[in-house]
């Protein structure tokens, strides 16, 4: 079995990241969005999960002053349920702490109980609802957050 490596996302990773993106979200980000995040957004930090040379997941966040906001986290469907998302999320949290973030937050679909359960393992708690947040079906988002210090 190949080893999982979590590393910073590079421009060359975008085509494979798009495969993960399209298999994970009903309204996927475009390659232009990822290129912008990697080249123009100084607050953005993205990582990929490399499994034997294949990108099987990715995650990103924005660091604004001392707050980390998770933008996306996704694992290819065939690799879900293997704790890879937990490893990736832990990596994100540790990166946010190293950078000096004191709080971390994210939005998650109210119907995504599996993801909510994982986030709770890391201490995130519900902080509110964003009504009609998702553009594909107007589902609400649950805002979750945790203090990192």
Describe the secondary-structure layout.
Elements: E1 4-8, H1 14-24, H2 31-39, E2 44-51, E3 54-64, E4 67-75, H3 84-99, E5 103-109, H4 113-121, E6 125-130, E7 141-147
Parallel strand pairs: 4-5
Antiparallel strand pairs: 1-2, 2-3, 3-4, 5-7, 6-7
Question: What is this entry, summarized?
Answer:
This protein is an alpha+beta fold and 149 residues long. It is 30% helix and 36% strand.
How does this structure look, described?
This protein is α+β, with helices and mostly antiparallel strands and 149 residues long. The protein has one domain: Gcn5-related N-acetyltransferase (GNAT) (Aminopeptidase), CATH 3.40.630. It is 30% helix and 36% strand. The protein contains four helices and seven strands. It has a seven-stranded mixed β-sheet with strand order 1-2-3-4-5-7-6, with helices on both faces. The N and C termini lie far apart (36 Å).
């Amino acid at each position: 079995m190949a080893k999982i490596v979590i590393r910073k996302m590079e421009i060359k990773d975008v085509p494979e990241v798009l495969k993960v993106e399209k298999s994970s979200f009903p309204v996927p980000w475009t390659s232009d969005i990822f290129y912008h995040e990697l080249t123009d957004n100084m607050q953005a930090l993205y990582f990929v999960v490399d499994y034997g040379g294949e990108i099987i997941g990715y995650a990103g966040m924005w660091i604004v002053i001392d707050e980390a906001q998770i933008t996306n986290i996704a694992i290819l469907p065939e690799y879900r349920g293997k704790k890879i998302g937990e490893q990736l999320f832990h990596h994100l949290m540790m990166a946010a702490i190293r950078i000096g973030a004191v709080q971390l937050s994210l939005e998650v679909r109210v119907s995504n109980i599996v993801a909510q359960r994982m986030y709770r393992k890391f201490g995130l708690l519900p902080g509110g609802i964003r009504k009609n947040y998702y553009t594909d079906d107007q589902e609400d988002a649950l805002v979750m957050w945790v203090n990192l210090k």
